[in-house]
């Protein structure tokens, strides 16, 4: 990999370097080989939901107001209101966490494959 990058980084101003090569790397239309296909499909499966999850993380508001109200006025009504606000957020955070575990798992596949 370092050799490839050194080829791409050469400029014409260095007279003592090897000739400059024009190389086009098409990352957008790259296709996995047969040996890479299983890893590729697994990574694609995990990445499929990443955009939606990132958007949800960016829009995450929390339930601080409801929690503060339930602490300030610990009645059944305020506690139930806080629980109704917190419960979906806890479920969402669990989904985020599980997705991060999946990303970590497939990153090990990628690292392992790149070393082969």
Give structural notes.
The chain is mainly α and 116 residues long. It has a domain at 34-114. 66% of the residues lie in helices and 0% in strands. The chain has helices at 2-9, 37-47, 50-58, 64-72, 76-115. It is elongated. The protein starts with a helix and ends with a helix. The relative contact order is 0.10. The model has no long low-confidence stretch (mean pLDDT 85).
Write the layout of secondary structure elements.
Blueprint: H1 2-9, H2 37-47, H3 50-58, H4 64-72, H5 76-115
Helix pairs in contact: 2-5, 4-5
List keywords for this structure.
single chain, 116 residues
Poorly predicted runs are none
Number-wise, the strands total 0
Percent of residues in β-strands? under 5%
Order of helices and strands: HHHHH
Count of DSSP helices? 5
For the biggest sheet, the summary is:
none
Overall structural class, as computed from helix and strand content, comes to mainly alpha
> Globular, elongated, flat, extended or rod-shaped: what is the shape?
elongated
- The helical percent reads 55-70%
Average pLDDT score: 85
The assembly state of the depicted protein chains is: single chain
Separation, N- and C-terminal Cα atoms: 13 Å
Radius of gyration: 25 Å
């Amino acid at each position: 990999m370092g050799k490839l990058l050194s080829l791409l980084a050469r400029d014409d101003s260095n007279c003592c370097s090897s000739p400059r090569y024009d190389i086009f790397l098409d990352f957008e239309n790259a296709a996995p080989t047969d040996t890479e296909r299983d890893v590729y499909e697994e990574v694609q499966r995990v990445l499929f939901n990443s955009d939606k999850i990132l958007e949800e993380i960016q829009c995450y508001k929390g339930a601080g107001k409801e929690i503060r109200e339930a602490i300030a006025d610990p009645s059944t009504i305020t506690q139930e209101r806080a629980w109704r606000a917190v419960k979906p957020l806890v479920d969402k955070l669990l989904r985020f966490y599980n997705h991060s575990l999946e990303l970590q798992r497939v990153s090990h596949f990628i690292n392992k494959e790149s070393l082969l």
